[in-house]
Structures are given as structure tokens and as C-alpha cells.
Amino acid sequence: MSSVLENFDSWKKFLGERVQQAKKVGLSEETISKLAYEIGSFLDEKVSPQNEQEHAIKELWDVGDEQDKKTIARLMVKLAEQKG
């Protein structure tokens, strides 16, 4: 997975493809956003940012409360949908 994270455009494309797959199997937007939040939490704890964009997102994630993090996750899903 680290190779996907090295390039932010690759990460957005990868995430967009996963969002489309989730929609095809019938997951709701709310469920997808919850999954994105869980993935964000995992990445925050286990994976070091690989580029400037990921560093910026991590800084925002680290200063945000739970609601802020859920918003970041929803926005990442929206961004991925546009780019996927």
C-alpha cells in the first residue's frame, strides 16, 4: 500500500476506485464515509505521510476533534469521487 500513498494523485485514484466499488455493492454514502473515517484513523496511527498533501491532511486530522475528522473523511470521499 505504501506505493499508492507515495503519490497523492495515485492515492486519490485508488480511493476513488474503492468508493465506486463500495457503491456498486450497495453501500450508502454514510457507510462509505464511516469507512473513510476508520481508514483515516488507521492511517494516522500506522502510516507516515509520504508527500506534502498527506502531511497537510495529517496536521488537520491531528488538530481536529472527532466531528472534524468525520468531515475530513467525507471530503476525501468527495474528492476521490471526482478523481476516481
Q: Secondary-structure map with pairings?
A:
Elements lengths: L1 H5 L1 H17 L4 H18 L5 H12 L2 H18 L1
Helix pairs in contact: 2-5, 3-5
Low-confidence stretches: none
Topology as H/E string?
HHHHH
CATH names the topology as Cytochrome Bc1 Complex, Chain D, domain 2
Percent range for β-strand residues:
under 5%
Please give the CATH architecture: Orthogonal Bundle
> What is the total tally of β strands?
0
Could you name the CATH class? Answer: Mainly Alpha
Distance N to C terminus: 17 Å
Q: How would you summarize what this structure contains?
A:
It is built from 5 helices and no strands. It has 84 residues and is an all-alpha fold.
Protein model, in words:
- It contains 5 helices and no strands.
- It is mostly helical.
- Helix 2 packs across helix 5 (66-83) and helix 3 crosses helix 5 (66-83).
- The chain is globular.
- InterPro entries: DUF3243 (IPR021637), Uncharacterised_YmfJ (IPR024702), YmfJ/YflH_sf (IPR038292).
- This is DUF3243 domain-containing protein.
- It comes from Paenibacillus agilis.
Please describe the structure with a list of short key phrases separated by commas or semicolons.
DUF3243 domain-containing protein, mainly alpha, 84 residues, 0% strand, Cytochrome Bc1 Complex, Chain D, domain 2
